[in-house]
Amino acid sequence: MNVFAAKIRQMILPGRGGAYGPLPPLLVAMTVVTGLVDAFSYLVLGHVFVANMTGNVVFLAFALAGARGFSLPAVVVALAAFGARIDRDHHIAVHELLLAEPGVSGEEGNATSGRADLS
Q1: Alpha carbon 29 to chain centroid, angstroms
Q2: Rounded distance, CA 36 to CA 40, Å?
Q3: C-beta separation of 33 from 41 below 8 A
Q4: What is the domain partition of the chain in residue ranges?
Q5: In this predicted model, what pLDDT tens digit does every residue of 14-49 receive, in sequence order?
Q6: Entry pTM
Q7: What is the Cα–Cα distance from 26 to 114, expressed in whole angstroms?
Q8: Among candidate residues 29, 60, 65, the one with its CA nearest the CA of residue 47
Q9: Contact 34, 41 (CB under 8 A)
Q10: How far apart (Å, rounded) are the C-alpha atoms in residues 61 and 73?
């Protein structure tokens, strides 16, 4: 086996004493899964990406430029849903942080903690 192939094999399938541990195979697996999800969503769910928003931004640019085969409403809905999810997750995270502080509850906790309301 040549040196290049040996290095690739060592990176993807490291031994027990590998420099990066299980990280390389996990990253390869996540890349494959993300690709499968994007392929499925693109082919079945109306030509939008659900695992990678970069593709939707590119499609938005094509649709705005007037390229045929790109649906502006579909891309806008996908990006809006992604943005709504980020907003919702932000509010949940802030709420959980506030509840995690001892003695802090609701609006009274914000006033007594001395921190600005992040929500």
Answers
A1: 15
A2: 6
A3: no
A4: 1-44, 48-119
A5: 777 777 777 778 778 878 887 888 888 888 877 777
A6: 0.42
A7: 42
A8: 60
A9: no
A10: 13
CB proximity list for 20: less than 8 A, separation 6 or greater? 11, 14
pLDDT in tens, 54-112: 778 888 888 888 888 888 998 899 888 888 887 777 777 777 777 766 655 555 444 44
Residue keyed to tokens 């094509």? 62
Helices marked H in the chain: 3-12, 23-44, 53-65, 72-100, 106-113
User: In degrees, to the nearest 5, what angle opens at C-alpha 72 toward C-alphas 59 and 43?
Assistant: 60
101 CB contacts (<8 Å, ≥6 apart)? 109, 113
Quick one: how many helices (H) and strands (E) in the chain?
Answer: 5, 0
Mean pLDDT score, 2-11: 83
CA distance 52 to 39: 11
